[in-house]
Amino acid sequence: MRDGLWLLTIRKKHAFVPTMAQTEAGFYMGIEPVEVVDAFDKEALEGAMMRGIARGNPIVPTPTRATFPNDPLLRHAKVKSSSTFEKLARTWKLSKREGAYLIGPYKPGRDGGSVEDLDRMEAIPVDIPLQTVVHRLVERATQAQ
Predict the structure, then answer these.
(1) Contact call for residues 8 and 45 (beta carbons, < 8 A)
(2) DSSP-assigned states of every residue in the chain
(3) Is 90 exceeded by the pLDDT of residue 113?
(4) What is the C-alpha to C-alpha distance for residues 97 and 107, in angstroms, rounded to an integer?
(5) pLDDT at 22
């Protein structure tokens, strides 16, 4: 498996797993397809994460401010603004880089939005099977609800 980044967002009773694209500039953004599953069905949640990881991180053109797309999670959650969505959402990341998997939550940023919660980040050696890493991510993310 190549290095990359994938997100899991839990809001109310739903879990959202977007396809995470990497822009030509190097940052990541969520795109379609987005899988939505019951947040309490851990098996379905693990399956959605595994499929999201299998989709990889397609390279897309870097959008300008004028052409930056809306977050696809908003449509799936049936809300109109990021601030409304984020009030009840908890996002976790799984990334692979430098020979390790990293899993951990995001927390509210000082200036809005969210930032990685580095104090709660967990490094897992890359020789651990991906299914085990995804299981750990789902366990941590669902315990936090």
Answers:
(1) yes
(2) --SEEEEEEEETTEEEEEEEEEETTS-EEEEEEEEEEETT-HHHHHHHHHHHHHT---EEPPPPTTTPPPPHHHHHHT-S-HHHHHHTEEEEEEEEETTEEEEEEEEE-TTSSEEE-GGG-EEEETTS-HHHHHHHHHHHHHHT-
(3) no
(4) 21
(5) 97
Residue with tokens 């009773």: 13
Query: Using one digit for the tens of pLDDT, what is the confidence trace for 55-87?
Result: 999 999 999 999 999 999 999 999 999 889 988
Show contacts of 65-68: CB within 8 Å, 24+ apart: none
Average pLDDT over residues 132-144: 94
pTM for this model (two decimals): 0.94
> Which residues, other chains included, contact 59 with Cβ-Cβ below 8 Å and sequence gap of 6+?
21, 22, 23, 24
Place of tokens 């998997």: 101
